[in-house]
Design brief:
The complex is a heterodimer of chains A (about 160) and B (about 250). Chain A has about 160 residues and is an all-alpha fold. In chain A, helix 1 (about 5-15) packs across helix 2, helix 2 (about 20-35) crosses helix 3 and helix 3 packs across helix 8. Helix content of chain A is about 70%, strand content about 0%. Chain B has about 250 residues and is an alpha+beta fold. Among the domains of chain B are: about 5-55, no CATH class; about 125-245, Phosphorylase Kinase, domain 1 (2-Layer Sandwich), CATH 3.30.200. In chain B, strands 1-2-3-4-7-6-5 form a 7-stranded antiparallel sheet, sandwiched between helices. In chain B, helix 1 (about 5-15) packs across helix 2 (about 20-30), helix 1 (about 5-15) runs parallel beside helix 3 (about 35-50) and helix 2 packs across helix 3. Chain B is globular. The termini of chain B are far apart. The interface between A and B is large, with 54 and 49 residues.
């Protein structure tokens, strides 16, 4: 299970948006995993562990945040005439990309992290998040669409001190 | 395909999660539709941006140490009161848990390797069906094909003669798992068969992927993978004959 520590931490870190909290979440997840090992029904250990991380993260988020940040709200359709080059140009701005990913609702962030960072298949993501594959597809598509829109927005204005 | 249908599948297409037929329909649609093409480019651009390694958070070393301690010092585990009397049980349980997990992981990894190999063989097969990719040496004669391989790969693959049921079309050099492999091409009617051969033992199995049947086996220290769009029984017949004619233990 230790081989999945990075995967667990990466997911917790992106969901909690905090290095400190992510460590607590992962530790809690490993305790639950070790304790609940008798409930492990076989299959993929990574998916199983990540499902626990996801659940612990969401419980943690619920304690601190409003529901609005957890689950996506209906939003305006995204402009689909963005120049793909403009998206790629932002890749170099690591902080900007991070901030944009963190602004996504946690539901959408989870699929994006599991697919594009962790490389899980749709089926594995569906297993981890306990949702149908169709939901994985639509969330992933909305996550990428939103992110594209955020990345090409003019840079957020920072207030002068 | 309508734009609205295509849009719903663009992400799955870019993630390689669609079956071959649907992928092709997306290909066709995107070729003619500039807006969907742009949407596809968005998806691809975002994938590039997000998957950049700089966004991956690796576990800090102190967390690794904490988790290791958890696994090896079960006294640190918060537990329910009734479990206290069984404190001595924990190291055994944790160890058992680790062993079961490790075995599960090995099986999972092996399974993934096998899947990867199936995917690679399928890709090589599809690639060979592209114009001008099928054959490096065109000959229906095994005595022409075999010497050609002897000068192009560092092993000597058997070249079974299976006519009249399966006609040898020739051979080519291909790559599977980053190593050069021999590919023999046979035809029966409208169906092509690729028989990939390389040294090494890799078990045996029968599978199918995206409508193609695949059979693989090991003989004489060589690994054989046969793939075709013909039916499973027909491919099985091909394999039986190939094994009897030099690609199996019967002849050597």
């Amino acid at each position: 299970m230790l081989v999945h520590l990075d995967a667990a931490y990466n997911l917790a870190r992106w969901l909690s948006r905090s290095e400190h909290d992510a460590q607590d979440i992962v530790q809690e997840a490993f305790i639950r995993a070790l304790r609940g090992f008798d409930q492990f029904r076989g299959g993929d250990a990574r998916t199983w562990l990540l499902a626990i991380v996801r659940n612990v993260s969401f419980t943690w988020l619920q304690r601190r945040k409003t529901n609005r940040e957890l689950h996506e709200q209906v939003e305006e359709p995204v402009d689909d005439r963005i120049d793909p080059e403009a998206i790629l140009l932002r890749a170099a701005d690591v902080q900007r990309v991070r901030d944009s990913i963190e602004r996504l609702p946690a539901d959408l962030r989870a699929v994006l992290v599991l697919r594009d960072m962790e490389g899980l298949s749709y089926k594995e993501i569906a297993g981890t998040l306990e949702v149908p594959i169709g939901t994985v597809m639509s969330r992933l598509s909305r996550a990428r669409e939103r992110l594209a829109a955020m990345l090409v927005e003019p840079a957020p204005v920072r207030e002068l001190p | 395909m309508k734009c609205s249908d295509a849009r719903e599948l663009l992400d799955a297409y870019a993630d390689d999660e669609l079956d071959l037929l649907t992928s092709r329909r997306i290909d066709e649609h995107v070729e003619q539709c500039a807006r969907c093409r742009l949407a596809m480019d968005h998806v691809r651009a975002i994938k590039v941006v997000v998957s950049h390694p700089s966004h991956y958070h690796r576990a800090p070393s102190q967390l690794r140490a904490r988790v290791l301690a958890l696994m090896h010092q079960p006294a640190g585990l918060p537990r329910s009161p009734k479990a206290i009397g069984f404190r001595w049980l924990y190291p055994g349980l944790a160890a058992a848990a680790l062993i079961v997990l490790a075995v599960g992981l090995m099986v999972a990894v092996e399974h993934r390797d096998e899947n990867r190999l199936v995917a690679e063989v399928l890709t090589a097969h599809l690639r060979s069906l592209q114009p001008n990719h099928l054959l490096d040496v065109v000959s229906t004669n095994q005595h022409t094909v075999k010497p050609w391989f002897d000068t192009h790969v560092d092993f000597s693959p058997p070249v079974p003669q299976l006519s009249p049921q399966f006609v040898l079309e020739g051979g080519r050099l291909d790559y599977v798992q980053n190593r050069p492999v021999a590919a023999l091409v046979y035809r029966r009617g409208g169906h092509l068969i690729n028989l990939f051969i390389w040294p090494g033992e890799n078990g045996q199995g029968v599978t199918s992927d995206r409508g193609f049947n695949i059979i693989h086996w090991t003989a004489n220290g060589m690994t054989f993978w046969a793939i075709s769009d013909m039916s499973a029984p027909d491919l099985g017949d091909f394999v039986d004959r190939a094994r009897a004619a030099g690609a199996g233990p019967a002849h050597r």
